[in-house]
Amino acid sequence: MKIEVTNQVPQIAVAIKKTAVSMEQIAEVSTQGYTRLMGYIAEQGKEMAGAPYLAYMNGNEDFSLFDVELGIPVSEAVPAQGEFYMSQSYEGKAIATTYKGPYKDIEPAYVALMEYAAKNSLELAGTYYDYYISNPADTPESELLTQVVFPIK
Question: Which 3 state secondary structure label does DSSP give 103?
């Protein structure tokens, strides 16, 4: 798995946040959240302007629960309303890899990034990002591309 040090460029995004989400709930929370986000963006007369992301924040020690932010980049800000707010994707130094395959099998990408960070004495910032490059509606599960990004200090 190819891992590289990157300098992430931020994009503004319409986002929602969910707290105390278990790994078993991620697929359902993501599907429902992105459906609502796409609907809200369409209501505002806007379009997606980049890869949707899922930020895992405030994880507990065994990585079983996270607060998550689901975001969809847009080219210009839209009004905050209810659960929807403006945010931005990560800006700064990170290590990253691109995973190919089903979302449920992504764990080896995370393990590889953690091992790379440890081997290279890099301090992780504690928030992890998945950027969904492929659209699961028109991409076979085995061909899905996800960029996994670990911000570093």
Answer: helix
pLDDT in tens, 125-143: 989 999 999 999 899 999 9
C-alpha–C-alpha distance, residues 110 and 9, integer Å: 21
Q: Which domains does the chain have, with CATH numbers?
A: 4-151 (3.20.80.10)
Distance CA 103, CA 40 (A): 25
Burial class, 36, CB count within 10 angstroms (exposed 0-12 / middle 13-18 / buried 19+): middle
What does the pLDDT look like over 56-111, one tens digit per residue? 997 777 778 899 999 999 999 999 999 999 999 999 999 999 999 999 999 999 99
